[in-house]
User: Fold these one by one.
Assistant:
Number 1:
Amino acid sequence: MRVTSADVARESGVSRTTVSYVLNAKQGVVITDATRKRVLDTAARLGYTPSAAARALRSGRSDLVLCVLPDWTVGPLLDSLIDHVTTSLHEHGLSVLVHISRGSRPLTDLWRAVTPCAVLGLLPFAEQDARAMTRAGIVVVDAALDEDPHPQTFSVPQAAIGQLQVEHLAQRGHRVLAYAAPADARLSAFAERRISGVRAACARLGLPEPRVTEVELTVGSASAALAAWRADEPATGVAAYNDEVALAVLAAAHDQGLLVPQDLAVIGVDDIPVARLATPPLTTVWQAIDAQAEYLAQAVLAALDPARPRPTRPDDVFHVVTRAST
C-alpha cells in the first residue's frame, strides 16, 4: 500500500499542510528545525515518495519523457539508441520511461497516467493522438522511416540502406543479386522500405529484379534460400536485411562449400560487434545510431525550451564498412 503525506502527518503529529511545506521546501514559511527534522525522518522511515502527478501539478511540468516504441524486435542498435537518449536527457534532469506498443490499449491511457512533459516516438503518431497530447501541454517529438517533409520530424530513410547495398555489390561486378529478408513480421516496416531501395537501385543500374527470400536465423533456412538463389543463373551477391541475417547466409555458404566472396558476396546492415568476427569478416552498412539518438534527445530539449536552438540533422547517417565478405 502506498504511503501518503497523510500517513507522514499522522506519524509526525503535525498537519498535512506542514508536511507539504517541509517536503516541498516551501520558502517564506516559518517551521522549526525540530519539526522539519521530525517530518523528514518520518517520511524516510515510512518510505514516502511523492506522487509524480502531484509533483507535476506543483511544478507545472513533470521531469518524465515517455519514449514510445512500436512493436519492433529489440536488438543491439535499438538498445544503443535508447541508452544514448536516456543518458543525454538524464544530464538535463529528465527521466525516460520506455513503452513498447503492444496490444490495443490506447496511448491516451498511458500518457494520462504518467503525466510526461514530452512524448518521443520512433514512428509518427496518429494525428488524433498527437493533437490530444499537444492540447494537454505535452511536447510531441517523433521520427519516420521515410523522408518526411515536416521540419520537426527526424527521418531515417530506410530505402537508402538498400540502395547503398546494391551500389556496393554492383561496384564489385555483381549483376545477379538476391535479398535475404527477415522472417519476423515485426520488422516488415523496415524490410519493405529497404527492399524497395534494393529494387530501385537494381532498376537504375540496369540489373535484373533481385530475388527476395525470407531467411530465418538458422543454417537450414539460409541454405534453402541459397539453393534457390543459385539455381538457373546463380546470384553472386546477397544483400541481407541486417547483420544477423547476413551471418546466417555466411554459415549456409560455408555449409554448402561456397567461397566468400569468390562464389558469393554478402553485405549486411548495422555493423554489430560480431560482424567483424565473422569468417570472413562481414561487409555491412554502418548506421549513425549515436548521432541519431543525440538528435532526438536535443529535439526533445529544444521543444521543451524554445530558447534552445533546434539540433542540426546529422549528415553521415549511413555508410558502407567494407570487409572481406565482398
Number 2:
Amino acid sequence: MAPVYAPAPVIPVRAQGSRVWDEEGRDYVDLTSGIAVCALGHAHPALVETLSRQAEQLWHVSNVFTNIPALKLALRLTEATFAENAFFANSGAEANEAALKLARRVAIDRFGTEARKTRIISFEQSFHGRTLFTVSVGGQQKYSDGFGPLPGDISHIRFNDIDAALAAIDDRTCAVIVEPVQGEGGVIPATADFLRCLRDACTRHNALLIFDEVQTGIGRTGSLFAYMDAGVTPDILTAAKALGNGFPIGAVLTTAEIGKHFSVGTHGSTYGGNPLATAVADRVVELINTPHVLDGVRERSAHIFASLRSINSRTGVFRELRGAGLLIGAELSDAYHGRSKDIMTAALEHGVMILNAGPNVLRFAPALNIPYECLDEGLARLERAIDSFRSD
C-alpha cells in the first residue's frame, strides 16, 4: 500500500455498535465512528439488512440510467432541507469539487467570462478534501505543498473574522465556502454573526455561499444539518461521511435555479448515485432524522462535556472544550502543547479510540446512538490513559 498513512499498531477485524475488536481479540470503545462516519455505529442491523436486500437486486447501472434508490434519496434530502436538487458522488472531496465547479459555472453563465467573477474565498485552517482543487481551496498549506502549480483565484482569510470577510468578498467573488464547525482545523464552531455576515455579503455581491457539511451533516450537531441551527441558509451544501454510515457516498444539495447550470454533460461520476450507496444512505437519513436520535445527540453532548470537565478538574490537561453536538474538541493546556498524538496512542493502549484535530486538539465524534454505558466506559478508559500519559 502507498505509504500515505501512518497506521496504528492495531488492525480492527470486527465491530458492532460502538465497540471494535482487533485481530488478537482485544476490544476498544470507539469514540471516533471512523472520523464522524459511522453515525449509527458499526454493522447497524437495519443498514445491514438494507444493503443485503439491495445487493440481491441491483448493484450498478451506468449513468445512462437512473435508479430507484437514488431517486428516493434525492427526494428524502430535498424534502428535509432547503434544496430542490441533488447530485451524488463518492466522497466529501468529490462533493466539494462538484460544488466549487458548479459555483464557477453559475458565475460564468450569469455574468460571462469578461466579468472575471471566479474568485473563491475560503478560510485559514479549513479542510475541504484531497483533490488538487479542494486541497487548494482548503486553508492548510501542508496539504497542497509539493504538487506543482495549483488552481488559482483562491483566497484564504481568517475564520470568524467579520471585518476580514467584508473586506474580501466583492463583485469578483463567485463563492465562499465555509465549514459551520471547522473539523480538521481544530473543532472550531463558526459564530452565528459570522455566518450571517457571509450570507449577507454573498447576497450583496451575487456570490454563492457553500456550506461544507461533510463532517457536521446528518445529525452530528443535533440537527440534520448544522445550517438549520445557524439561522443561515446556504446556496449549496455538501454532505458525505455519515450519509452512508461507512458506505462511500457524497452529495451536493442546491436549489433548482442553481442546479440547472449543471446541464447534461457538464459533470458526472461513474459510481456516483449507485444503487447500493443510495439505498444505504436513504435508510441512514430516515433513521437519523427523528426527534429521538437528534435529541439524543444533544443529551450525549452535554454528558461528554460534563465528563471531560470532570477529568480536567483533576488533571488540568485541557485548556478549552468546544464543539457542537457530538463533534467535540478538547484543546490541550500549555503543559501538554503538541502532544495530542501521544494521548491518542495512550488512549488506544487503554482500549479507547479517539481522534485529534491537529497537534493540540483531541477530537471526539462517537456514534450518535452510542449507549451511555459504552460512552461512560470509553471516557473512564480515556481518564486512565490520561493518567498514564501524565505519569510518563
Number 3:
Amino acid sequence: MTDQTVTRQTFDEVMVPVFSPAPFVPVRGEGSRVWDANGRDYVDFAGGIAVTALGHAHPELLKVLHDQGAKLWHIGNGYTNEPVLRLARRLEALTFADRAFFANSGAEANEAALKLARRVAFERHGADKFEIVSFTQSFHGRTFFTVSVGGQPKYSEGFGPVPQGIVHLPFNDIDAARRAIGKQTCAVIVEPVQGEGGVIPADPAFLRALREACDAHGALLIFDEVQTGVGRTGHLYAYQDTDVTPDILTTAKALGNGFPIGAMLTTADLAAHFKVGVHGTTYGGNPLAAAIADKVVELISDPALLAGVRSRSDTIKDKLAKLHERFDVFAEVRGKGLLIGAELNERYRGRAKDFLAAAANRGVMMLIAGPDVLRFAPSLVMPAADLNDGFARLERAFEDVAGAAR
C-alpha cells in the first residue's frame, strides 16, 4: 500500500515544478488564521491570492456546501440547474449585465471574453477587425491565449509563436491608447487595478479615454475584474466606483471563496453572438460551485460589509505608514480597498521575497506582486484582533530584514 504520509519534501518528489511553495504545509483554516501540519498558526494577509474573501471555513458557506452537496454536484451542460440560474439572476441584478457565462477560473472567463469580442467583431465588421489591445504588466490568465494577451512576456516566451493581433500599450498612457485604438481594434482589455503587475490603480481619466476610444471605433471594452471583483476594492465590482461601464466583465477568485468558479458577464445584445456550440465548458456553472458563489455574492454585496472593506483599507494603510516611519522601507503604498501594494524603496529594491519569507517565519502569510511590491489581499471581514496581531508579527519580520529602527 502507498505510504500516505506527506511533507513539504513530497511536493518536490511528486509535483510538476511550476510552483515553489513555502516550507510549511497548511492543513486547516478558520476565519483569518491558518494552521500548518505542526500546529503553528499564521495570520492570513494573502487570502489565497485574493480568493478567500469571507475567510476560511465560513459557517454559512459550509452549510451551502453540505446542503447542495447532498443534492446535486454536477449534471453537465446538456442540462441547466437551479443554483446557476439563481446566481446568474443575482449577478445581473447587481451589475450592468443581463447575460452570464460560467467557467472554472479567471483564465477561462477571460478566454471566453476575448473569444466573444472577436466573434462579435467578425460577425458585425468582418475578418479584418481582430486586434486586441492590452497593457504592459497586465495579467489575464495562464491559457496560451490569455497569457499572450497579458503584458508580461516572461509568461508567454518559450512556447512557440503567440496568437497574432495583440498590441501591448503602456498602462495609464492616454495618448498611446488614443493613437493605437483604431478600426482594426475589436477589444480593449484592462484591469481596473493591475494586481500581478504591482497593484497599480487605473487613472479614472484613462478608463474614460478607453471607453471613448472603443465607442469611436466600434470596439468592445473588457474589464478584467478577476482580482478586483466581488468586494475586493470596497465596491462589489471596481467599475462601480468609476463612471465607466464595460461591455464585458470577467470575475473569479473571490466569487467562490476558494471553490473554483469564474464568470463572464455581458449584455444580451453581445451574448447573442455566442450561439449554441460556439463556446462551452464541462464543469462551468455546475450546481455545487454556483450554489456557493450565490451565497458569497449575497453576503459580500451587503453595503455594510463593503463599508467595512473601505474601513479596513484605511487601517492597513495607516499601519503600513507606521512601519515605514520606523524602518524607511517603502517608496509608495497604493491600491483600493483590500488590494494594497507597498512598493519597496531603492534600499530594498528586488527584496520582496526576503520580506515574504521573514513574514512566514514570524507567522504571517502574505503575497508579493513582482520583486519590489508587498501585496495585501486579506479577508474582507478580517477581525480587528487578527489584523492587529498580524501587523505586530509583521513588525518583527521587518526587524529581521531591515534591522533595528532608525
Number 4:
Amino acid sequence: MSSPRASVAPEQAGVTLPRGLLIAEAWSRLGPAVAPLGNASGRPLARTVKLILDPLVLRPVLNPRFAAGAVDVAHAEELRDRIAAAGPVLAATAAWFLLVKKRRRKAGITEGNPQDLYFQRCFELATTLGDPGAGAVAEADELLADVHDRAGPTVAGLRDYVTDPVNVGALLRMLDAAWAALPAAGPDGGSVLPDRFLATCVTRPDAAVFAELVTDLAGSRGAADLHRPGVAAADGLTDRELPTRPELGAAASKNALPKPFDRSIVQRLFAPLTDAARRDALADVPDLVRREIARSAAPWQLGAEPGRVAMLLGRAAAAGLVGPPAAGAAAQLRTRWEREAYVHRARRMPGDGVHADVHGVREAYLRRLWVRLHGRELVDSTVVATEVWDLLDGVLRSVILDQRDRLRTALERLDERDGHG
C-alpha cells in the first residue's frame, strides 16, 4: 500500500534529494527477499538499477521527474512508493534469478554476464508467473535455452580460431597485406551533396542524392583525412595519433572496450557475438574474421560504401552539436541535445569529470554511429536513404541515455557529498 503523500511546505519548494539515496532507502525497506539483486551494503546493484529499476519500475523516460541525479522533494515519496509497490515482483525476480543461475551452473554455461543476460527475463517471469513454483525448473531451463541455444558463431569459437597456431600465421599475413594496400581514395573535393541530403532527410530523404553520394564514393573520400595525424583522434575514434593495424587479440570485455579503431579483431567482433538475438544472422567464424581483417583497413574501417556515406553524413550532422547554429538534420540533433535538462545542469557543475561527457558529445556520437554501422555490416544490412535520419537520430538518443546515466551518477555523488541537491 502506498504511503500517504506529505504536503510540501513553501520553504521546501525547489529542494531536491539525491536520487541514489532515495532508491537505496526504498530498497532497504524491501528486506532480504531482494538480496540477490543487491550488494553487501544492502543497496541495489548498479545493474539492478540500470536493467530493472530504471526501465521497468521507475521508467524515467516516461516519468522525467525521476530522471535527474536529484529528485524534487515533491516527488520523493512517489519514487519510494513505486519501488515499494514493486516489492513483490522484485522479490520474485530475485528468486527466479537464483534458480536460473543454479540451472546455468548445472548446464555448465559460462558465456556472458548472468545479470546482463537474465535480469530482465527474470523480471518478466516474476511479472507473469509470480514466485517460482511448480514447473519453475522447466521455465528456467527454457529461458537458458532461449538465450544460449541459438545457432551461429560464439565468442569461444572466435577465441579458439584466432589463437590456434594453425591459423595465426595466415591471419597475420592477411592483416599485413590488407594494411600494406590501404585504399588511396582521393580527398573530399568539397561536394555540396552531403549538405543537400542532410537539409531534407528528416522529412524527405532524397534517394537520388544518397545514391549519387554512394556512386561518387563520397564516404571513402571523406575518410581520407583520418590518416592525417590527430584527425581520427579528434573524431573520438582512436586514442592514437594515427590509426594503426589492429592485433588479432584473444580477450575482450564489454566494460573495457577501447575506441573503435584501437580494438583488436576479437574486440571488434566480441559484442555482436554476445548478442544472442543476432548471433544466428552472423557468418561463421573464419568468414567473420577474414571480413573483419579486410574491413579494418578500409575507409572508416567499414566494408561497404553506404555505411561510409552514413559516417560522412553523421560527422557533418554531429558538428552542429558543438558548433555554430546549424540547419536540417544537424539542427534537429542540436535541438534534441539542448533540451536535455541534465546537459544544462552538468555545465553548471564544477569538475572536469561531470563536464567530460557533455563536452565530448560529438566524439561519443561518432563512436556510437560507427558501432551501429559496423553491427549492420556484420549481418549484411545495407543502409538506404530512408533509414539515414532514423539512424542519426537513434544514435543521439542512445548517447543521451548513456550520458544521462553516467552524469546522474556523478551528480548523485556531488549531492551526497554536499548533503543537498
